[in-house]
Every structure is written in C-alpha cells, then in structure tokens.
Specification:
The complex is a heterodimer of chains A (393) and B (162). Chain A has 13 helices and 12 strands. Chain A has 393 residues and is α/β, with parallel strands linked by helices. Chain A has 2 domains: 145 residues, Aspartate Aminotransferase, domain 1 (Alpha-Beta Complex); 240 residues, Type I PLP-dependent aspartate aminotransferase-like (Major domain) (Aspartate Aminotransferase, domain 2, 3-Layer(aba) Sandwich). In chain A, helix 4 runs parallel beside helix 10. The N and C termini of chain A lie far apart (50 Å). By secondary structure, chain B is α+β, with helices and mostly antiparallel strands. Chain B folds into 2 domains: 41 residues, Arc Repressor Mutant, subunit A, CATH 1.10.10; 85 residues, Lrp/AsnC effector binding domain/regulation of amino acid metabolism (RAM) domain (Alpha-Beta Plaits, 2-Layer Sandwich), CATH 3.30.70. In chain B, a hairpin with a 2-residue loop joins strand 5 and strand 6. Classes of the chains: A alpha/beta (393), B alpha+beta (162). The interface between A and B is medium-sized, with 27 and 18 residues.
C-alpha cells in the first residue's frame, strides 16, 4: 500500500524535527546528560497538584465550558492585568491545551490559504510547520547576532510585503533567550501598525525574564486590538505535563477562535484547569512566591551557564529571558549540527543544533539550563574537555 | 546575613565541592569576593565544616546508627547546656539537638556494632545524674539524607519534540 497517496500532502512534506533524531540517540546512551529538552526540572508545586487531586476525588470529572472554567477565566483576567498590565475580558479568553494549542488555534483562526506569516528566525520550531498545516506561507525574518537576535523595527520594515498579514512575536525567545525592552517593542509596533499586520504574541516565557519585567505586546498603545496573546502554565508554573495555557484576543477574534476550539478540543482537561486555577490564586495571594523562587533559581543557572560557556571560549549573547543559552560554535565546528553530533558522541552531552530553529541559527547550539547547577556543572565540564580537544586538533 | 551570603550558603549546602570560581558565576560575583565571604562565614561559625553525605549501608558495613531520645533535669541557671555538653563530649555522639515536645535531647550516635551502642547507652548515658530516661531507636534504612534521596535520581524527563 502506498500510504503517501493517503497522507495529506502538506503533512507528508513536513520535514522531521531536527531535535528528534538527537534525543532518540540520547535515550539509548548510558550516562548521557541532556541539555536539550525545553522543560523545567521542577515538579509542579504541591498545592497545585493537591487541588487537582481533590477535584478528581470529589468527582469533578466532566467537561467545563468550552471557553474554560469561569473561575479560571476570572483568575487569568486578573493575572494578565496585575502582572503584565493587559486587560482582556473573560469573553476574550480561551483556556487552551498548552500554549501549543494556542499557536495552532491562533493560526487556524487567522490564516487563510496563501496568507503570509512573518516568523523571526531563529524561533521555536513549531511555527513553520503549523503555518504550513493551515495552508499559509512563512516568510522568515532573518535576525542578526550583533543585535542579540532581537527583532528590530527595520527587520519588520524590510521583511513585510503586501501579502504579509501576520507576524509572530516570540519573546522572550526560545532558543536565543532574547527579550525586548519597551522602547524596542514600541518601535517595532509602530511599523506593525503602519503595515497593518496582526500579531500572534507567544509569551509563554513572560515570567522568566531576568533583571527586568516582561513587556507584553498588547500592553503597547494601540496594539491590543491587533494582537492575539498566548501564554500558559508550563514554564513559569512548572506544569508542562498538565497541558494548559490560554489565548487572549479581541472579542471578534476570540469568538472565531472559540468555534475552532469547541469543534476540535471541546475544552481543556478539567483537572488541569483546577491545578491552573490553584496556581494563579496562590500566586495572587503570595505575590507569586513559587514563581519567583523558581525564577531566581533559573537566574542563578543562567549566570552560571553563561560564565561556563564564556570560560571555554564559546561566544554567547547573555540571555535575558526563558531558560536557554545560544552560543556560537563556529570557532570549533563547521556548524551547530556538527558540534552537537561530535559533542554527543565524544562526551555524551546533548545540545540542540541551532539549525532546528531556522537558518540563522545554523552556527549555534541551544543549551537548556533548566537543570540543577550540579548537573550543569558536569555537562559543562564535559563540554570544556570536548572544546579543548577540538582546539588541539 | 546579606543576600550574597544566603546565595553562597544555598549553593554550598547543595554541593560543598563547588569551587569559588563557579559559585561566583552562579551568584554574579567575582571569585575573590566569594572566597572572602566564605572565610567570613567560617569565622563567624555559620559554616561549621564540610563533609560528605553518606549512606554507609550501601557499603555493606556493620556500623550502627541510632537516635536516642533523652529526658533530662535541666540545671538551675544553666538550663540544658551543661548536660548537653557532658553528652556531646563522647566521640560516638554525631549530632545533638535540644528539642521541643515529649523529650529534651535528640542524640544521634554511631557505633561499630549493636553492642557498642548498647554499652554507650547503658554505661555512659543512662547513668548520668541529670538523665531521667532514654529511648533508643535504631536507624534501619535511610531514604533521604540532608536533602538528598538515597536512591540514585534518574532523569525523569522524557525526550520530547519540539
């Protein structure tokens, strides 16, 4: 049977993820250390887990409203307002199955076949395939290392053409750790408004910024009306496995998105919504103590990671957000792919080749610092040995 | 206790072999400042020493550890300190804490074998003037020591794409 005749052509043609083959290798390797997975090493705080357990025990096992549990929607509205100064009403919000569903949902809601979507390069690996699946066309916006991989107003000016309809704003950024200052964002937004683009702001790392507060795209004057804001619980609340996040958008867009969401997902898992509600309520009542303590720990690891990488001669823009460092490896290998492959084989340390995130990341690798200092220390000492060997040969 | 002291202590408590240079990286300071701060913490008696967290059962040895709950008569004017001093002088005593609740002193002792621990309790501890009673609990198995679980912790995160 020729399955290719049956599989959707777009899906068939999506190349397999560049990350996948590495981690298949890592999982078979004894004693390998992975700096590859973009997942917190913290367990979900007990209070949130307990809330979900209690709700299950009490028999709360049915659907919630399509949009999400009203109590959770209320907490999300308060959270958005208090933490990021953005005011979305409860009927402008949809609880999603992680920000991942949010990306898909936003694209399905906004993109018609042939519409062009601007995607900064390098960025999170899902945008391009997701745009392809909904029949859109990606136009990458090449980012420069000398700008710290930050999107600039000039970049948008240069990239946006007549057909361009949507721009994805993924800050703080995976894989570069770049975050935007308010002034930088304002300049970009001026161009976005002039070019009449709609924004999908993927702000899943909004809580994980260092030495500054995250500036939400929708908080900039005149931007809320043209922005879909995505966020979630996975990173800041250490809740990856619960698959829970949210999408906020102006009412007409949120209403359209709700149609897609109700026909594909029905509603996000009820127990996960309970845990999410507990997370936000607890955060509000304790000044986000849990989030802040995890953030402080990531900050320690971030400084340690950058220090170790610099020590071994890997140039690295200091990340200001998320939990990734994105060092340049061209002094030591032809590209990130070669570096990562050799590093894994010789020292059993897994990092992700930058090319997985777009052509502009080719000469880089992504190192996740969501591991204990002790684990990071072991990994970086091995990497140091590896780099020394490369220097010698 | 200032912020950098707290940060350094947290790192050392987790791994006391971390070098000053690496601690400096993590706390965003320089090596010299870290070294000075650590020396200062040692002088002030905040850092009392450095030792390995061990689970000697894993070695297959016969050493015996016990927690002895001790009830005592505090001394006029000196409270529990004098009797505590008499007890911690013995080298078998590894840790000694004054407790709230049903007894006064928690004495952690280590002996080569059961007989040694028994001898310590019956010949040294119980016979002290101020000691009213003792209850000896042998430690059978250690699951978590100083914040570290005894079972080797494996990476629980599964490979996931993207």
């Amino acid at each position: 049977m020729n399955y290719d005749d049956f599989i959707n052509r777009t899906v068939r043609d999506i190349p397999p993820s560049g990350i996948r083959k590495f981690f298949d290798l890592v999982s078979t390797m004894d004693g390998a250390i992975s700096l590859g997975v973009g997942e917190p090493d913290f367990v979900t705080p007990w209070l949130y887990r307990d809330s979900a357990i209690k709700s299950v025990i009490s028999g709360r096992t049915g659907y919630t409203a399509n949009r999400g549990d009203p109590a959770l929607l209320r907490e999300i509205a308060i959270y958005n307002r208090d933490r990021f100064g953005i005011n979305y009403a409860e009927n402008e919000t949809i609880v999603t199955v992680g920000a991942s569903e949010g990306i898909d949902l936003a694209l399905r809601t906004l993109v018609s076949a042939g519409d062009e979507v601007l995607v900064p390069d390098p960025s999170y690996v899902s945008y391009m395939p997701n745009v392809a699946i909904v029949g859109g066309a990606v136009r990458p916006i090449p980012l420069k290392r000398e700008n710290g991989f930050k999107l600039t107003a000039e970049d948008v000016e240069r990239a946006a053409i007549e057909k361009s309809k949507i721009i994805i704003m993924p800050y703080p950024n995976n894989p570069t750790g770049a975050a935007l200052e308010k002034q930088e964002l304002e300049k970009i937004c001026a161009v976005i408004k002039r070019k009449n683009l709609f924004v999908i702001a993927d702000e899943i790392y909004a809580e994980l910024t260092y030495g500054r507060r995250h500036i939400a795209v929708a908080s900039i004057d005149g931007m809320k009306e043209r922005t879909v804001t995505l966020n979630g619980f996975s990173k800041a609340f250490a809740m990856t496995g619960w698959r829970i996040g949210w999408l906020c958008a102006p009412k007409p867009v949120a209403d359209a998105a709700l149609k897609v969401h109700q026909y594909t997902i029905m509603c996000a898992p009820t127990a996960s919504q309970e845990a999410a509600y507990a997370a936000l309520k607890d955060g509000r009542e304790t000044e986000y103590e849990q989030v802040e303590s995890m953030r402080a720990e990531y900050d320690r690891r971030r400084r340690f990671t950058v220090g170790m990488l610099c020590d071994m001669g890997l140039e690295c823009v200091t990340p200001c957000g998320a939990f990734y460092a994105f060092p340049n490896v061209e002094k030591f290998a032809a590209d990130g792919e070669e570096f990562a492959e050799k590093l894994l084989k010789s020292q059993k340390v897994a990092v992700v080749p930058g090319s997985a995130f777009g052509a502009c990341g080719k000469k880089h690798v992504r190192c996740t610092y969501a591991s204990s200092i002790k684990a990071l220390d072991t990994a970086f000492e091995r990497m140091r040995t590896f780099v020394k060997e490369l220097k010698r040969s | 206790m200032n912020n950098i002291e707290t940060e350094i202590l947290a790192l050392l408590k987790h791994d006391c072999r971390l070098t000053a240079d690496k601690i400096a990286k993590a706390v965003g300071s320089d090596e010299n400042t870290v070294k000075k701060t650590i020396t200062n913490l040692e002088k002030r008696g905040v850092i009392l020493g450095y030792s390995a967290l061990t689970d000697e059962h894993a070695l297959g040895g016969d050493t015996v550890e016990a927690l002895i709950e001790v009830r005592v008569n505090p001394m006029y004017g000196r409270g529990f300190d004098a009797i505590a001093e008499d007890i911690y002088k013995f080298e078998q005593v590894k840790s000694l804490y004054l407790m709230s609740g049903g007894y006064d002193l928690a004495v952690f002792i280590e002996g080569k074998n059961l007989r040694e621990v028994a001898a310590f309790v019956s010949e040294k501890l119980s016979v002290m003037d101020k000691v009213l009673s003792t209850a000896t609990h042998f430690i059978l198995k250690k699951y978590k020591i100083g914040g570290v679980t005894a079972a080797t912790s494996e990476e629980k995160r599964q490979p996931v794409t993207p």
